[in-house]
Task: inverse folding
């Protein structure tokens, strides 16, 4: 079994600001624009409107601004947060832990250690899943090789 080599996350960052996201990824959004409708966010993120509303209800996005008519208006910061939340979902992090992380972010800098511990725990889970997938990939490669050799022998 071959496990992918990985390095620990860099914990000695120079920028103290925690914008709650991975390094900024370029979204397909217009330059200079910072207010988006829910349908635009659906197009940018691939999330459904139902999911976006649910995230708001459960506390993952409680700060979404509204227009004077009550329509949601998402900012670039909201899109960055959604990108981060999507990454957390891909890790398999339980929604309750994601909500807890969001609560910690809202509580401020005094929660850095707890946030770090939560992310480190998730990172360990991801590394375990990667190892399991590498093992599974090795089994598939053995089987594929077996069938290829059998076909070539005929």
Result:
């Amino acid at each position: 079994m071959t496990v992918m080599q990985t390095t620990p996350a860099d914990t000695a960052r120079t920028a103290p600001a925690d914008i709650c996201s991975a390094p900024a990824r370029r979204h397909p959004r217009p330059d200079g624009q910072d207010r988006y409708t829910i349908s635009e966010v659906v197009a940018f993120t691939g999330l459904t409107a139902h999911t976006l509303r649910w995230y708001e209800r459960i506390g993952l996005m409680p700060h979404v601004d509204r227009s004077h008519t009550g329509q949601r208006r998402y900012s670039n910061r909201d899109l960055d947060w959604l990108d981060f939340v999507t990454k957390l979902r891909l890790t398999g992090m339980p929604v309750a832990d994601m909500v807890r992380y969001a609560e910690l972010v809202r509580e401020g800098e005094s929660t850095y250690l707890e946030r770090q511990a939560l992310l480190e725990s998730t990172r360990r889970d991801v590394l375990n899943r990667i190892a399991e997938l590498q093992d599974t990939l090795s089994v598939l490669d053995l089987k594929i090789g077996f069938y290829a050799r059998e076909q070539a022998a005929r």
Notes: The mean pLDDT is 86.
